[in-house]
Amino acid sequence: KKTPNQMLIIFGASGDLTSRKLIPAIYNLFKGGHLSKNFCVLGVSRSNMTDEEFRTKAILESPFLQKENSKEDPQTMQAFAEQFHYQDLGSDYDHSYDLLANRIASLNEQHGTSGNYIFYLSTPPSLYEVIAKNLSEAGLSKEKDGFRRLIVEKPFGYDLESAKTLNDALHHYFDEKQVYRIDHYLGKETVQNLLVTRFSNSIFEPLWNRRYIHHVEITNAETVGVEKRGGYYDKSGALRDMFQSHLLQIVSLLVMEPPISSDAEEIRDEKVKALKSLRIMKSEEEIVKNTLRGQYVKTEIDGKTVKGYREEEGVNPESTTETYAAIKFFVDNWRWKGVPFYVRTGKAMPTKVTEAVIHFKTPHHEVFMSQDAYRKDNKLIIRIQPDEGILIKFGVKVPGLGFHVEQANMEFYYSDLESAQVMDAYERLLLDAMQGDTTLYARADEVEAAWRFVDPILKCWENNPAVNTYGYSVGTWGPRNSDELIEDSFGWRNPGD
Ligand code: BG6
């Protein structure tokens, strides 16, 4: 189904996200035939550029579209580029909105975009409110003769209070149903598949509760350090950057009750309830016992010295910002009472992987030779990335004498599907926004519920910078002490080990 006629107005058009993610996503949607003929993009930013210069930089000479540029016939690329325009908004994103409104009106005429506009805020978050206010004052936020949508990038707030302030500010100018808060993990095929795995298979759902699940483990690891984003990251840290957003989104999908339909609001209502049922850690004592953080340190690897976090560009040499976080928590509701959840995330780890592991309880009565507990429990491993798929581990008899039990694997890989066209997360999410589907976007109350859980941990960590903070070598699975956080006999599952 093609998207309706519309214009996408990108604030922060000369930024990294636009060239790295948004334009390739738009290009794929264009190539896939998803976009209406009456579509155009207006890039907005603080630099001075002509339409031609913007097209050359963002498309024709973009390193992120290089492959397309060499294989595509130049006319197709040129036709794609001609749908792009540029508007300089001056130095502070606070002026020239009349000019912008006029430009939008004339492009609307030129491209026949039917007065349907999406504003994509790919700017520093400090500008979100200013832009929303100015759009509203320029008469661009009210849906009178077409739709008006606002896509907002993460980080969405810095803590609970700032998230609420931002939500209130945006609600001043836009209705909640016009606001699309992007969390690119929700655009990942395998994250969406969590819902399908749970709610369209009667072999899993009956077991999905405290009676049969022993614990749940989620690992998110990246091999890279903070790269060129030291300045941003040092004010953020793993808890804000990954846990509050992406990982709690995964948690909400694992934990939620079945929605009554696949309607966006029904699904989001259940996610909010799930997030609200996470047990908030109240005392510092509880937080210290159930959380742990780490920072990667300078490491010798094969005779070469690899930088530690504090040596990275833009990072305070005495920074206590965590690049690794591990958290144990409980979900206080009927389904999950007493089941521990263990979630960890880190940079500079041995491999890039995100997976959720559901550990089922071991059989009540042991009939056969016991081995160590870890190898005995049934596990459902949901591989979010890479090698997207699902793995089930179950016991089989070792051939030969006696009844020795060993674990066997049953595996499914997305890449084995014939229709394995996995859309990039941004492509999928943009397409949804263009079609007005909010299912995979975070709602205001959802974001606030996630902050409500994270806030006390942030505060406790800020007040006690040295407590539970450990160094770890680059290329390892984080501080050794993190093993103490997880059940003795189980330990973390380190994929690839
Ligand atoms: C971003 C974080 O939201 O997600 C980055 O800001 C992180 O620090 C990235 O590297 C990870 O995304 P992905 O899709 O590569 O797992």
From TrEMBL:
Location of the Glucose-6-phosphate dehydrogenase NAD-binding domain: 9-193
GO biological process, one term: glucose metabolic process
Domain of life: Bacteria
Single GO MF annotation: NADP binding
GO CC terms of this entry: cytosol
Keyword Oxidoreductase: yes
Keyword Protein transport on entry: no
Transmembrane segments: none
This protein's UniProt keywords: Carbohydrate metabolism, Glucose metabolism, NADP, Oxidoreductase
Active site positions: H246 (proton acceptor)
Family named by the database record: Belongs to the glucose-6-phosphate dehydrogenase family.
Protein known as: Glucose-6-phosphate 1-dehydrogenase
Lineage of source species: Bacteria, Pseudomonadati, Bacteroidota, Cytophagia, Cytophagales
Gene coding for it: zwf
